[in-house]
DNA sequence: ACAATAAATGCACTTCCATTGCATTGGTTA
DNA sequence: TAACCAATGCAATGGAAGTGCATTTATTGT
Protein backbone atom coordinates (compact mmCIF):
# COMPACT_ATOMS: atom_id res chain seq x y z
CA UNK A 1 0.00 0.00 0.00
CA UNK A 2 1.64 3.14 -1.26
CA UNK A 3 1.13 6.47 0.34
CA UNK A 4 -0.51 9.14 -1.76
CA UNK A 5 2.79 10.96 -1.91
CA UNK A 6 4.55 7.95 -3.34
CA UNK A 7 1.74 7.38 -5.77
CA UNK A 8 1.84 10.90 -7.12
CA UNK A 9 5.61 10.77 -7.44
CA UNK A 10 5.38 7.51 -9.31
CA UNK A 11 3.23 9.34 -11.81
CA UNK A 12 5.69 12.20 -12.08
CA UNK A 13 3.48 14.63 -10.27
CA UNK A 14 5.24 16.89 -7.83
CA UNK A 15 3.70 16.65 -4.42
CA UNK A 16 2.23 19.81 -2.99
CA UNK A 17 -0.18 20.44 -0.15
CA UNK A 18 -2.87 21.52 -2.57
CA UNK A 19 -2.49 18.47 -4.74
CA UNK A 20 -2.68 16.15 -1.79
CA UNK A 21 -5.85 17.80 -0.60
CA UNK A 22 -7.48 17.66 -3.99
CA UNK A 23 -6.45 14.06 -4.46
CA UNK A 24 -7.95 13.13 -1.10
CA UNK A 25 -11.10 15.01 -1.93
CA UNK A 26 -11.50 13.08 -5.16
CA UNK A 27 -10.70 9.81 -3.45
CA UNK A 28 -13.39 10.33 -0.82
CA UNK A 29 -16.04 11.14 -3.37
CA UNK A 30 -17.76 8.19 -4.92
CA UNK A 31 -19.11 10.37 -7.70
CA UNK A 32 -17.67 12.48 -10.45
CA UNK A 33 -17.25 16.10 -9.45
CA UNK A 34 -17.27 19.40 -11.25
CA UNK A 35 -14.72 22.12 -10.89
CA UNK A 36 -17.24 24.10 -8.88
CA UNK A 37 -17.63 21.22 -6.49
CA UNK A 38 -13.93 21.33 -5.81
CA UNK A 39 -14.06 25.08 -5.63
CA UNK A 40 -16.72 24.95 -2.96
CA UNK A 41 -14.74 22.43 -0.99
CA UNK A 42 -11.62 24.59 -1.00
CA UNK A 43 -12.83 28.13 -0.80
CA UNK A 44 -9.47 29.43 0.20
CA UNK A 45 -7.80 28.16 -2.92
CA UNK A 46 -7.88 29.86 -6.26
CA UNK A 47 -10.03 28.54 -9.06
CA UNK A 48 -7.09 28.49 -11.41
CA UNK A 49 -5.01 26.33 -9.15
CA UNK A 50 -7.80 23.82 -8.83
CA UNK A 51 -8.34 23.92 -12.56
CA UNK A 52 -4.69 23.37 -13.35
CA UNK A 53 -4.33 20.71 -10.72
CA UNK A 54 -7.13 18.74 -12.30
CA UNK A 55 -5.60 19.26 -15.72
CA UNK A 56 -2.28 17.99 -14.43
CA UNK A 57 -3.96 14.95 -12.94
CA UNK A 58 -5.68 14.39 -16.26
CA UNK A 59 -2.46 14.59 -18.26
CA UNK A 60 -0.76 12.20 -15.90
CA UNK A 61 -3.71 9.92 -16.22
CA UNK A 62 -4.85 9.64 -12.67
CA UNK A 63 -8.10 11.45 -13.38
CA UNK A 64 -10.50 11.14 -16.27
CA UNK A 65 -12.99 13.53 -17.64
CA UNK A 66 -16.67 12.75 -17.98
CA UNK A 67 -19.14 14.47 -20.22
CA UNK A 68 -22.50 13.41 -18.88
CA UNK A 69 -24.55 15.71 -21.02
CA UNK A 70 -25.29 18.25 -18.32
CA UNK A 71 -22.97 20.60 -20.15
CA UNK A 72 -20.57 20.74 -17.25
CA UNK A 73 -17.41 18.70 -17.34
CA UNK A 74 -16.96 16.32 -14.47
CA UNK A 75 -13.90 14.51 -13.21
CA UNK A 76 -13.23 11.31 -11.37
CA UNK A 77 -10.16 9.46 -10.18
CA UNK A 78 -9.15 6.57 -12.33
CA UNK A 79 -9.49 3.47 -10.22
CA UNK A 80 -8.40 -0.09 -10.55
CA UNK A 81 -10.01 -1.33 -13.70
CA UNK A 82 -10.06 2.09 -15.27
CA UNK A 83 -7.61 2.00 -18.11
CA UNK A 84 -8.20 5.38 -19.56
CA UNK A 85 -5.07 5.16 -21.65
CA UNK A 86 -6.52 2.21 -23.46
CA UNK A 87 -9.19 4.01 -25.32
CA UNK A 88 -11.12 0.96 -26.32
CA UNK A 89 -11.49 -0.11 -22.72
CA UNK A 90 -13.70 2.58 -21.32
CA UNK A 91 -16.30 1.94 -18.73
CA UNK A 92 -19.65 3.61 -18.72
CA UNK A 93 -21.06 6.39 -16.63
CA UNK A 94 -24.42 6.74 -15.04
CA UNK A 95 -26.08 10.08 -14.52
CA UNK A 96 -28.97 10.28 -12.08
CA UNK A 97 -31.72 12.59 -13.22
CA UNK A 98 -32.93 12.84 -9.66
CA UNK A 99 -29.90 13.67 -7.51
CA UNK A 100 -27.93 14.89 -10.49
CA UNK A 101 -24.88 12.87 -9.57
CA UNK A 102 -22.72 11.02 -12.02
CA UNK A 103 -20.96 7.83 -11.08
CA UNK A 104 -18.49 5.56 -12.78
CA UNK A 105 -19.68 2.02 -13.30
CA UNK A 106 -16.16 0.73 -13.52
CA UNK A 107 -17.07 -2.91 -13.75
CA UNK A 108 -19.52 -2.33 -16.57
CA UNK A 109 -17.63 -2.35 -19.78
CA UNK A 110 -19.05 -0.88 -22.91
CA UNK A 111 -20.18 -3.55 -25.35
CA UNK A 112 -18.48 -3.71 -28.70
CA UNK A 113 -20.08 -1.17 -30.98
CA UNK A 114 -20.38 -1.92 -34.66
CA UNK A 115 -19.77 1.00 -36.97
CA UNK A 116 -20.30 1.06 -40.73
CA UNK A 117 -17.56 0.16 -43.19
CA UNK A 118 -15.01 2.88 -43.58
CA UNK A 119 -15.46 4.17 -40.08
CA UNK A 120 -12.74 3.58 -37.51
CA UNK A 121 -13.77 3.54 -33.89
CA UNK A 122 -11.13 4.84 -31.53
CA UNK A 123 -13.09 5.75 -28.50
CA UNK A 124 -16.55 5.36 -27.08
CA UNK A 125 -18.40 7.60 -24.69
CA UNK A 126 -21.49 6.14 -23.13
CA UNK A 127 -23.65 7.81 -20.55
CA UNK A 128 -26.76 6.16 -19.22
CA UNK A 129 -29.28 8.46 -17.61
CA UNK A 130 -31.95 7.44 -15.21
CA UNK A 131 -32.43 6.95 -11.50
CA UNK A 132 -29.56 5.74 -9.36
CA UNK A 133 -29.74 3.08 -6.68
CA UNK A 134 -29.97 5.56 -3.81
CA UNK A 135 -32.83 7.50 -5.38
CA UNK A 136 -34.78 4.50 -6.63
CA UNK A 137 -34.54 2.78 -3.27
CA UNK A 138 -36.87 5.24 -1.63
CA UNK B 1 -44.01 14.04 -51.06
CA UNK B 2 -44.99 16.90 -48.83
CA UNK B 3 -43.58 20.33 -49.23
CA UNK B 4 -41.53 21.67 -46.37
CA UNK B 5 -44.30 24.12 -45.62
CA UNK B 6 -46.82 21.35 -45.26
CA UNK B 7 -44.45 19.33 -43.16
CA UNK B 8 -43.82 22.17 -40.73
CA UNK B 9 -47.52 22.88 -40.48
CA UNK B 10 -48.25 19.25 -39.77
CA UNK B 11 -45.92 19.59 -36.79
CA UNK B 12 -47.65 22.71 -35.59
CA UNK B 13 -44.77 24.96 -36.50
CA UNK B 14 -45.72 28.23 -38.05
CA UNK B 15 -44.02 28.71 -41.36
CA UNK B 16 -41.74 31.70 -41.66
CA UNK B 17 -39.01 32.56 -44.14
CA UNK B 18 -36.35 32.11 -41.49
CA UNK B 19 -37.62 28.73 -40.45
CA UNK B 20 -37.76 27.50 -44.00
CA UNK B 21 -34.19 28.60 -44.58
CA UNK B 22 -32.94 26.97 -41.42
CA UNK B 23 -34.84 23.81 -42.18
CA UNK B 24 -33.33 23.64 -45.65
CA UNK B 25 -29.90 24.29 -44.25
CA UNK B 26 -30.24 21.40 -41.83
CA UNK B 27 -31.66 19.17 -44.52
CA UNK B 28 -28.74 19.80 -46.86
CA UNK B 29 -26.20 19.05 -44.18
CA UNK B 30 -25.43 15.43 -43.67
CA UNK B 31 -23.82 16.20 -40.34
CA UNK B 32 -24.91 17.63 -37.04
CA UNK B 33 -24.34 21.35 -36.79
CA UNK B 34 -23.67 23.78 -33.99
CA UNK B 35 -25.45 27.04 -33.41
CA UNK B 36 -22.35 28.84 -34.68
CA UNK B 37 -22.49 26.88 -37.89
CA UNK B 38 -25.98 28.13 -38.47
CA UNK B 39 -24.94 31.58 -37.39
CA UNK B 40 -22.17 31.63 -39.97
CA UNK B 41 -24.52 30.46 -42.67
CA UNK B 42 -27.02 33.22 -41.93
CA UNK B 43 -24.99 36.21 -40.96
CA UNK B 44 -27.85 38.58 -41.53
CA UNK B 45 -30.03 36.84 -39.00
CA UNK B 46 -29.87 37.35 -35.30
CA UNK B 47 -28.35 34.72 -33.07
CA UNK B 48 -31.39 34.67 -30.84
CA UNK B 49 -33.70 33.90 -33.70
CA UNK B 50 -31.55 31.00 -34.81
CA UNK B 51 -31.32 29.81 -31.24
CA UNK B 52 -35.03 29.96 -30.69
CA UNK B 53 -35.83 28.44 -34.05
CA UNK B 54 -33.71 25.44 -33.22
CA UNK B 55 -35.34 25.21 -29.81
CA UNK B 56 -38.75 25.30 -31.44
CA UNK B 57 -37.73 22.56 -33.85
CA UNK B 58 -36.49 20.58 -30.91
CA UNK B 59 -39.73 20.94 -28.96
CA UNK B 60 -41.75 19.93 -31.97
CA UNK B 61 -39.46 16.98 -32.41
CA UNK B 62 -38.15 17.56 -35.85
CA UNK B 63 -34.61 18.18 -34.60
CA UNK B 64 -32.62 16.37 -31.98
CA UNK B 65 -29.74 17.48 -29.89
CA UNK B 66 -26.40 15.74 -29.85
CA UNK B 67 -23.77 15.95 -27.20
CA UNK B 68 -20.66 14.60 -28.83
CA UNK B 69 -18.26 15.48 -26.09
CA UNK B 70 -16.74 18.50 -27.78
CA UNK B 71 -18.58 20.61 -25.26
CA UNK B 72 -20.65 22.28 -27.93
CA UNK B 73 -24.20 21.18 -28.51
CA UNK B 74 -24.98 20.04 -32.00
CA UNK B 75 -28.28 19.58 -33.76
CA UNK B 76 -29.54 17.40 -36.55
CA UNK B 77 -32.85 16.84 -38.28
CA UNK B 78 -34.70 13.78 -37.16
CA UNK B 79 -34.98 11.50 -40.14
CA UNK B 80 -36.93 8.39 -40.93
CA UNK B 81 -35.99 5.87 -38.30
CA UNK B 82 -35.21 8.52 -35.72
CA UNK B 83 -37.75 8.14 -32.97
CA UNK B 84 -36.44 10.70 -30.57
CA UNK B 85 -39.62 10.63 -28.54
CA UNK B 86 -39.04 7.03 -27.71
CA UNK B 87 -36.12 7.46 -25.41
CA UNK B 88 -35.06 3.86 -25.43
CA UNK B 89 -34.82 3.83 -29.19
CA UNK B 90 -31.94 6.18 -29.73
CA UNK B 91 -29.43 5.74 -32.45
CA UNK B 92 -25.77 6.43 -32.00
CA UNK B 93 -23.60 9.27 -33.15
CA UNK B 94 -20.16 9.23 -34.64
CA UNK B 95 -17.70 12.03 -34.10
CA UNK B 96 -14.71 12.22 -36.42
CA UNK B 97 -11.54 13.28 -34.68
CA UNK B 98 -10.09 14.30 -38.01
CA UNK B 99 -12.68 16.51 -39.72
CA UNK B 100 -14.46 17.20 -36.45
CA UNK B 101 -17.86 16.41 -37.89
CA UNK B 102 -20.57 14.52 -36.11
CA UNK B 103 -22.98 12.32 -37.99
CA UNK B 104 -26.04 10.34 -37.04
CA UNK B 105 -25.80 6.62 -37.64
CA UNK B 106 -29.53 6.26 -37.78
CA UNK B 107 -29.57 2.59 -38.64
CA UNK B 108 -27.24 1.72 -35.79
CA UNK B 109 -29.26 1.24 -32.69
CA UNK B 110 -27.71 1.33 -29.29
CA UNK B 111 -27.39 -2.14 -27.80
CA UNK B 112 -29.19 -2.91 -24.59
CA UNK B 113 -27.06 -1.67 -21.71
CA UNK B 114 -27.07 -3.55 -18.46
CA UNK B 115 -26.98 -1.43 -15.34
CA UNK B 116 -26.52 -2.68 -11.77
CA UNK B 117 -29.44 -3.59 -9.55
CA UNK B 118 -31.22 -0.57 -8.19
CA UNK B 119 -30.39 1.58 -11.16
CA UNK B 120 -33.11 2.51 -13.61
CA UNK B 121 -32.06 3.34 -17.13
CA UNK B 122 -34.21 5.91 -18.83
CA UNK B 123 -32.02 7.17 -21.59
CA UNK B 124 -28.73 6.37 -23.23
CA UNK B 125 -26.29 8.66 -24.98
CA UNK B 126 -23.60 6.99 -27.02
CA UNK B 127 -20.97 8.74 -29.06
CA UNK B 128 -18.30 6.81 -30.90
CA UNK B 129 -15.20 8.78 -31.77
CA UNK B 130 -12.71 7.92 -34.43
CA UNK B 131 -12.16 8.47 -38.11
CA UNK B 132 -15.11 8.75 -40.46
CA UNK B 133 -15.43 7.09 -43.84
CA UNK B 134 -14.41 10.17 -45.78
CA UNK B 135 -11.26 10.74 -43.76
CA UNK B 136 -10.20 7.09 -43.54
CA UNK B 137 -10.66 6.62 -47.28
CA UNK B 138 -7.66 8.75 -48.10
C1' DA C 1 -60.62 45.60 -44.62
C1' DC C 2 -59.38 46.73 -40.01
C1' DA C 3 -58.60 46.46 -35.32
C1' DA C 4 -57.18 43.31 -31.75
C1' DT C 5 -54.27 39.70 -30.59
C1' DA C 6 -50.60 36.52 -30.58
C1' DA C 7 -46.36 34.88 -32.27
C1' DA C 8 -41.75 35.71 -34.25
C1' DT C 9 -37.77 38.47 -34.54
C1' DG C 10 -34.02 41.57 -33.09
C1' DC C 11 -31.19 43.91 -29.69
C1' DA C 12 -28.95 44.21 -25.42
C1' DC C 13 -27.52 42.16 -21.64
C1' DT C 14 -26.35 38.49 -18.28
C1' DT C 15 -24.51 34.25 -16.56
C1' DC C 16 -21.66 30.41 -16.35
C1' DC C 17 -17.83 27.71 -17.33
C1' DA C 18 -13.37 27.20 -19.45
C1' DT C 19 -9.04 29.09 -20.36
C1' DT C 20 -4.88 32.16 -20.62
C1' DG C 21 -1.19 35.84 -19.44
C1' DC C 22 1.47 37.52 -16.17
C1' DA C 23 3.33 38.43 -11.70
C1' DT C 24 4.63 36.16 -7.46
C1' DT C 25 5.78 32.57 -4.37
C1' DG C 26 8.10 28.44 -3.13
C1' DG C 27 10.86 24.54 -3.62
C1' DT C 28 15.17 22.17 -6.03
C1' DT C 29 19.54 21.96 -7.57
C1' DA C 30 24.16 23.32 -8.85
C1' DT D 1 23.31 31.16 -1.79
C1' DA D 2 22.20 32.17 -6.38
C1' DA D 3 19.70 30.58 -10.33
C1' DC D 4 16.04 28.16 -12.04
C1' DC D 5 11.72 26.03 -12.76
C1' DA D 6 7.33 24.66 -11.20
C1' DA D 7 3.23 25.90 -8.61
C1' DT D 8 0.12 29.33 -7.16
C1' DG D 9 -2.74 33.51 -7.29
C1' DC D 10 -4.91 37.40 -9.54
C1' DA D 11 -7.05 39.50 -13.33
C1' DA D 12 -8.97 39.27 -17.47
C1' DT D 13 -10.81 37.09 -21.71
C1' DG D 14 -13.69 34.23 -24.69
C1' DG D 15 -17.41 31.36 -26.03
C1' DA D 16 -21.76 29.38 -25.57
C1' DA D 17 -26.27 29.43 -23.47
C1' DG D 18 -29.99 31.80 -21.99
C1' DT D 19 -33.42 35.85 -20.76
C1' DG D 20 -36.13 40.40 -20.84
C1' DC D 21 -38.10 43.59 -23.48
C1' DA D 22 -39.28 46.30 -27.47
C1' DT D 23 -40.60 45.84 -32.25
C1' DT D 24 -42.14 43.76 -36.27
C1' DT D 25 -44.94 40.41 -38.64
C1' DA D 26 -48.64 37.27 -39.08
C1' DT D 27 -53.33 35.59 -37.67
C1' DT D 28 -57.97 35.94 -36.10
C1' DG D 29 -62.49 37.80 -35.35
C1' DT D 30 -65.72 41.29 -36.39
UniProtKB/TrEMBL annotation, chains A, B:
Binds 1 zinc ion per subunit. InterPro entries: FUR, Fur_C, WH-like_DNA-bd_sf, WH_DNA-bd_sf. It comes from the Bacteria. The keyword Transcription applies. GO terms for molecular function: DNA-binding transcription factor activity; transcription cis-regulatory region binding; zinc ion binding. Keywords: DNA-binding, Metal-binding, Repressor, Transcription, Transcription regulation, Zinc. Zn(2+) binds at residues 96, 99, 132, 135. Its cofactor is Zn(2+). Signal peptide: none annotated. One of its GO terms (biological process) is regulation of secondary metabolite biosynthetic process. SUPFAM superfamilies: Winged helix' DNA-binding domain. It holds the Pfam family FUR. Belongs to the Fur family. This is Fur-type transcriptional regulator. It comes from Zobellia galactanivorans (strain DSM 12802 / CCUG 47099 / CIP 106680 / NCIMB 13871 / Dsij).
Amino acid sequence: MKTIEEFLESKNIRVTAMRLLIYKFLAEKQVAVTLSDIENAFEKADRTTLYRTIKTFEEKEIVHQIDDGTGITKYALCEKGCNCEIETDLHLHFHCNNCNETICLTEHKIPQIKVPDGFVSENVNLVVKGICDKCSGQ
